[in-house]
Amino acid sequence: MNLDLSKFCIGQKDEMQQPPIYDLYAVINHYGGMIGGHYTAYARLPSDKNSQRSDVGEYGWRLFDDSTVTMVEESQVVTRYAYVLFYRRRNSPVERPPRFLRPVGAESPTAAGATASQVRRTQ
Asked: Which residue range or ranges hold the USP domain (predicted)?
């Protein structure tokens, strides 16, 4: 499932530049009304190389519904309950967020000799 924005771009088109094509990687669904309802999400894991489609194996689509995670087919992902769709530009590098948790036994800022004021600024 991709979104091609080529016809909406103006200006010089560089042959070396990647076309503005975006791949769907997550969908949030809402079931219910304005007062109440239920949210679920579909997402697929990107491959480590780029954001191109990777719909099979460990990188396939998943349904997240409360405490349950289920593998699903791509054809099930976009429905009339889709509320927010997330796209990533094709061939863009996948940036993983930094890990914020220190390994067990790692020194805390205070154990390394930092003062209380230094600890507050870094947290």
From this structure: 1-90
